[in-house]
Amino acid sequence: MGAGGERDGSSVPDDVWEQFLRDSVDGVPDAPKEPSARARSATGRPREQPANPRAHTPPPRRRGKGWYVAGFLVAVALLVVAFDPWHMIGTSGDGAPAGPPLAQESERPTEAPPVEPALRPTIGEPFRGSPAARWANGAVGITVPAARATGWMSEAQVAQALRRSRDFLVASSLDPAVWRGERPTRATALLNPHQRDVQDYLKASFEAPSAENDPLLLFSRFDPARARVAGDVVKTRGRISYGPGERGALQVTTDVTYVYPVTRGTAGGDEIARTIVRREIVLNWDDPSKIITEPGTVSLVSYKTHMTNGGCDDHTGYFAPEFDSDRPAEGATEDRTVDPYDRARPMDELTGAADGGCGTASRT
Predict the structure, then answer these.
(1) How far apart are CA 162 and CA 211, in angstroms?
(2) Which of 47, 56, 209, 291 is 20 to 30 A from 145 in CA distance terms?
(3) What domain range is 226 assigned to?
(4) φ and ψ at 142, to 5 degrees?
(5) What is the number of domains present in the chain?
(6) For residues 174 and 259, is the Cβ–Cβ distance under 8 A?
């Protein structure tokens, strides 16, 4: 598979793909059913745990003969291997850990990532002290599986659908214009316009955001007056899977965690906070002989979101991250604690435990 998520040598050009879908629709003008999204949900959004960085002072250099220095370095290397097998201690100047990046996620992990040293992030290293430091940048962190013929689609058509499913994730969660608070027009253009309940949700969520109609369920937006993404890198980790859906559809399930390093908006400053968002979105590429659809668009089946440091019951249509200097000296007192990097927990468990309030993130 190529880096862009297509099978090498088997992708279908956009014009051929769209003509195929258009011909399919034209052949069945009385498609009997309009699709609808069966479920959508938000969860309680934990506050960011106040950072408690430890002072990190390098040991003083010791002078001596060459053999002593070599022996000392060997001993240090052995200690690093023993106590830091995940290569989380050392970092380079751009914030990347000294060890190699993590391999792509091909299935649900069995445990949360190990706890790393509590180091405060900086403008130069916004992911410092976070497991996301070893995650991939942007769309590269979203694993796209190899294609095989499924439902009404051939292998080549499935490969194209998987690529376009990732395009939707990029347009909704990784588009810098959307981060800056603009409407996600590229993402919404990919959604089936015949899904009336979804179109109603989209209209309401941007005109009058509320707990029920919250654009943050699908889109990552910050109010530029309050916060902005620091730099142009958002870390991601997650995967796409697929199988047969109802009425012969190709059903695509996406489960991705996004880590946004943010600074204050118009107020400026160099303090870094992180907003962490995990979304599970299920999409149907419907058979146009059975479902009313438009060429090149996808139907939403369900969408669930879990947010950390994105705001506490603050339904403005924008993430509202908190910064350490804004918090009182006493930490949060909520009982519910969540590790936002724990991708071993299924989303149903996270959303089922939500009570609409705010919990405490064990780390950010």
Answers:
(1) 30
(2) 291
(3) 14-53+61-97+112-361
(4) -100, 110
(5) 1
(6) no
State the Cα–Cα distance between residues 35 and 286, nearest whole angstrom. Answer: 9
φ, ψ of residue 222 in degrees (nearest 5): -120, 145
From 123, 115, 136, select the one nearest 94 (Cα to Cα). 123
Tokens standing for residue 12: 């279908």
Output the CA–CA distances (angstroms, integers) from residue 29 to 32, 118, 194, 208, 292, in the order listed: 9, 60, 14, 35, 9
pLDDT the model gives residue 3: 35
Q: Is residue 103 part of a domain?
A: no
- The burial class, CB within 10 Å (0-12 / 13-18 / 19+), for 106 is exposed
> Number of C-alpha atoms within 13 angstroms, CB side, residue 241?
9
What mean pLDDT value characterizes the chain? 79
Which residues lie below 8 Å from residue 315, measured CB to CB, with a gap of 6+? 209, 210, 211, 214
The answer to whether residue 2 is domain-embedded is no
Instruction: Specify if 102 maps to a domain.
Output: no
Quick one: average pLDDT of 218-247? Answer: 96
Quick check: 162 and 144 in contact, CB under 8 A?
A: yes
Domain-embedded: residue 7: no
Q: Which residues contact 49 (CB under 8 A, 6 or more apart)?
A: 331, 332, 360, 361, 362, 363, 364
Give pLDDT tens digits for 246-267.
999 999 999 999 999 999 998 7
- Spatial distance between the Cα atoms of 222 and 163, rounded to a whole number of angstroms: 26
pTM higher than 0.85, yes or no? Answer: no
Work out the burial of residue 342: count CB atoms within 10 Å of its CB; fewer than 13 is exposed, 13-18 middle, 19 or more buried. middle
Q: What are the φ/ψ torsions at residue 18 (nearest 5 degrees)?
A: -70, -35
Q: 28 near 288, Cβ under 8 Å?
A: yes
